[in-house]
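Entry 14. Ran structure prediction on the chain below.
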Amino acid sequence: MGSAAQATAERALRAAISRGDLPPGSRLVEADLVALIGVSRNSVRLAIDALAAEGLVERIPHKGARVRVVSTEEAVAITECRAPLEGLIARKAAERITDDEAERLREQVGMMAAAVDSGDLLKYSDLIHQLHGMVHEAARHPVAAGLVGRLQAQLVRHQFRLSLRPGRPRVSLGELAAVVDAVAARDPDRAEAAAVTHVQSIIGALEDAPSEPGGPA
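Output, structure tokens:
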């Protein structure tokens, strides 16, 4: 298990990569990150190692670490791999969910709708992340959840950009509400189909996304 300082460093790095403060291809200089995050050099090094294991960062021999460039083409391929896994997780959640878990999922969708209505897209993004965790917990399928987590970790920058695109949050809210509705209704077939539909929608949005300035497609 990593230390609290390492966890803090991981969160800070992941957030900076998501927002574009550390854009794709940026070198990760340990001394600079120590000053920025306020943790020890060892904690920063361990955090970089953890993000490298997730595929978000890469270590280049004799050059140090940098933020890995994930092209749109690769992001689409990664998301394609997610589709059957997300479908499986939604199906298992529909089969195994408790009444309390179903109620919490419905409440979460209500909070997500409020965030979209108020235009608080950063909060909405956080609430989506929490929702996925709640569905994964209800599914009680740690293997599938772990695989999705490793795939998802590589896409934080792409997902952040999508979440800020005009109109996209309203679309994803409707799709995720359909997943929750089916899971809470304990309808495995509908839950699986809704989850796959949502992931396919993400693929379409990724394919339509403009390239980042100076970055890959």
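The beta strands are 27-28, 57-60, 64-67. Will compare against last week's run tomorrow.
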